[in-house]
Amino acid sequence: MTDADETAPPIRVALVDDQELVRAGFRMVLDAQPDIEVVGEAGDGVQALELLRGTRADVVLMDVRMPRMDGIEATRNVVAGSGPKVVILTTFDLDEYAFAAIKAGAGGFLLKDAGPAQLIEAIKSVHSGDAVVAPSTTKRLLDRFAVHLPDAEAKANGALESLTDREGEVLRLVARGMSNAEIAARLYVSEATVKTHMGRILMKLGLRDRVQAVVFAYETGLVKSGQGDNSV
Question: 72 and 160, same structural domain?
Fold first, then answer.
């Protein structure tokens, strides 16, 4: 461990879920990590916004279905206020809510039955500026709800035409859940080159992060539900 690692402040996490036992389970896992600190809990979106007005957090673990204000509206408010990053907690039964929350500004989503290691990795990834897009989960989520996505011609509006062929290729691979390392290996380029392409893609399309890029690719028909990972 480097000196920088030893002196870096812990990642401050807020837990938002209407089930106290769920929050307790997450807190138990996170409190055991020396580089993560749970700074508060809330049982619904209204409490979450109140908590975040008086408590600085880096990452919020946000449930979706809650009383008074659900996770979608809460996420929209948190992101609009340039607040902390949001990771949506979901189950397969609530995938449509997770999709809406991601579009509202969440940095990623995580299944509630994820293991401790996945939870910790998701928090660290989002905090470092990456998006939590698990390939298998992303594919299942978007495949299941592709019927809700608008027609490609209705959404494209010339946006895709601003991308170079290589940028379009990178975006398709990102939408299939491939990591930068996997994309670099597929295209025989460096990871730094992939990151450069991603930065240009986000800038040209006016997108915030990798998660929004995945949603955009499906919405515009660049990648369609059911396409295999080996298709390019």
Answer: no
